Amino acid sequence: MTADPPAGGDRRLTRHADVRAVLADPRFLVPPAPAAPPGTGMAWLRGAVSRFSNGDEHACRRARVVGLLDTLDPVQLRREACERTSAELAGGARVDVMARIARRVPVGVLATRLGVPEDRREEVVAAVTAMAAAYHLPPAPGAAPAGDAAVGVLAAALNEGEEPEPGLLAAVAGVLVQACDATAGLVGNTLAVVARLPADLSLRWPVEALLAETLRWDPPVRLTRRVAAEDATAGRVPVPAGAVLVLDLAAANRDPEVFPDPHRFDPARFQQARFQQARFQQGGGHLGFGSGVRPCPGERAALALAAGVVEAALGHRLAEPEIPYEPSPNLRVPARLHMEGGSETMEGPR
Fold first, then answer.
1. Which pairing describes strands 317-318 and 28-29: parallel, antiparallel, or unpaired?
2. Would you state the pLDDT for residue 108?
3. Contacts of 282 (CB under 8 A, 6+ apart)
4. Are 312 and 97 in contact (CB under 8 A)?
5. How many angstroms separate the CA atoms of 122 and 105, rounded?
6. Is the Cα dihedral 311, 317, 320, 321 positive or negative?
7. pLDDT in tens, 17-38
8. 163 and 169 Cβ atoms separated by less than 8 Å
9. What is the pTM of this model?
10. 320-328, Cβ contacts within 8 angstroms, sequence gap of 24 or more
11. Residue 149: which domain range?
């Protein structure tokens, strides 16, 4: 169905064309964070980042984030992520990728490149993980106080004890938090499917194609929301001002009108650059990093970090066939993913 009202009365869009159209329409805004007094806690952070702002405020904050990300070298990010993952997996012993690598390596690499001293790397990784748990509303039980303290940890690490400029703190914190769970989900979901494939298949495709198809087939970010700033139309249905739209990115990524045989994991869809570019020009392409007026500014860095981790883990196998997932209304992130060295494979993806 083009538009289903889910629980709570919000309208859900599932067709790729409808979701893409809303993301490109400036009349549909991100639900803003509640106003909060100045400080360094989670309420302040949500009100200070680009993620929960609109209009000129969003443009200004986003420009600062883009400026930070433009200083990063994707080749260097990928190489360091690969080296650190290889060190964790050395020897072939059983490792929980989600506990030891999926957040810790990408966030750690990114944090040091954004100004966190190396000797405070692990402390900041733990802080960012706590912040990510409290970032969205409502936070998990007990997450808000831990998140408040974590923002303070990052602030102290950035300026070595001196209070950092609030705009810089918000930009760095926003980048790290946005990279935390989503990148962990991308890494975990990619390895969960690739480790079940025969080795000759998993090594046939470039890592970039594996990641792109995972972002389509099993994206870590499943849903996003927009609020109509004025009367509009979405999914061929009138939408009154103030209505909330739930954009089902996971369903849109399996729209058969855009992706033939959509439930099959097939990295060949994204293997050839010219083919991929043509699909984007025609309005196709996965929605793993959003689209339209405010796509994710960290796509290049996130893909480089995830590619480094996945590249190092290829050839390892699942130590446990069943993979539990973290409870979340809009994220799909494995709770545990035990892998070990060896060439034996589990059954193909289901």
1. unpaired
2. 98
3. none
4. no
5. 10
6. positive
7. 999 999 999 999 999 988 787 7
8. no
9. 0.91
10. 321/346, 321/347, 323/192
11. 3-340
